[in-house]
Structure formats: C-alpha cells, structure tokens
Amino acid sequence: GQNIDQPTEMTATEGAIVQINCTYQTSGFNGLFWYQQHAGEAPTFLSYNVLDGLEEKGRFSSFLSRSKGYSYLLLKELQMKDSASYLCAVRPMFSGGYNKLIFGAGTRLAVHP
Amino acid sequence: GAGVSQSPSNKVTEKGKDVELRCDPISGHTALYWYRQSLGQGLEFLIYFQGNSAPDKSGLPSDRFSAERTGGSVSTLTIQRTQQEDSAVYLCASSLGDGASYEQYFGPGTRLTVT
Fold this sequence. Notes:
- The structure holds two protein chains of two kinds.
- By secondary structure, chain A is mostly beta strands.
- Helices cover 0% and strands 53% of the residues of chain A.
- The termini of chain A are far apart.
- The mean pLDDT of chain A is 92.
- Chain B is mostly beta strands.
- In chain B, strands 2, 4, 5, 8, 9 and 10 form a six-stranded mixed beta sheet that branches.
- In chain B, a hairpin with a 5-residue loop joins strand 6 and strand 7.
- The interface between A and B is medium-sized, with 26 and 28 residues.
C-alpha cells in the first residue's frame, strides 16, 4: 500500500528554525514534493527532490534519503507568514508519463512571536 | 499569467442532488488532476487527464463521480446523488506535461457542503 506520515501539528518561534519530517512507504519512488497551504487557499509548490541530498531554496531547504524513505523540510528565519500547512507528496511511479501524487495529511505549523 | 481557476468557490446542495464543478487549467498545460480534501485530511487523488490519453479514474470513490475534459482544456467534475460524506474541498491542478519534475499548480478549490 501507499503510506505517507508527517506530524499533525508543530509550533515554533519567529526567527527560529523548524524541521518538518516526512516518511513514506510507496510502491516505487519517482520524486517527492513539498507544498505549502495557507488556510483556505490552494497549495503552492515549495520543492522537489528525486535524488538523495539537500536542495536549498532561500529560507527553505528539503532533504531526501531514498534508502530510508525519509524527507524533511527545513524552514529558517521563521516569519509569521510561514504559519501554514506543509504537505509532503510522493510520486510512487512514473510509468508512461503518469504523474500521480500521493499526499500526506499535512503538518500544520504555527509560528508565534 | 492566469493561474488555475475553479468555479463555484462555494457550493451548498441538498443530499441527493447532482453538482458540477468546473476547472480551467493554465493555458498550455496538458495534464489536469482532481483531488479532494476533507477537513483535517490530506489531498485524495480522484482522476488524472493527460492530453488525449484515456483518463486515469482509479481514485474516483464511487460511480456517482465522473469527470470529463473537453478540448483538452476545461474539465468538469460531476457528482450525482450527492451524499453528506461528499462534503469536502475539491481541488483541481494542472501541470505543463507529464515530465518527472513538473510541479502541479493548484486552483483555489470548490468547497462543497451537502446538507
């Protein structure tokens, strides 16, 4: 079966660093995405990992270990506007151009002053 | 440029009625996806269209759900004989193609409430 786990909620302080973990068990692996979703809004793309290692993009970084079925999203210099849900999504297979994603339930991050 | 648009933004319907939800993808995007997001839940894949290929309907929860995509652009998701458990936010997404790294761009969603 397909299973993606991430913590339900996290809290952090403005200016701090927070790491949101995601573990997955899927039938095959062809890429992992992180999306940000503010309450009542559409998810927006943050990062994509397909090879092991760290991808850095400004204040946000994403790490992948395929052998461990594990990824994390690292948010630095937290701002109040970073309060949102963070969705981990895995593409379990890429056969004939099939781009289906399996999403985790999301981690709701609350940043406080 | 214009993003993915969906209409209506909110829909309240009585149990047993049919509803149609519309999605306008980003121009030039050949891939289109429908997801459902229930309160506190992750996004649940429903259906996927890619170009002129037959759609993948493997995520549709029952035969009351159907979707079509006309002219490779606009898509309509139809739910017949709605049930209370159909209440959710229905999200549409599109991507440039089916390339491995192509991100999906999401619309704002349609919040469906079945009373």
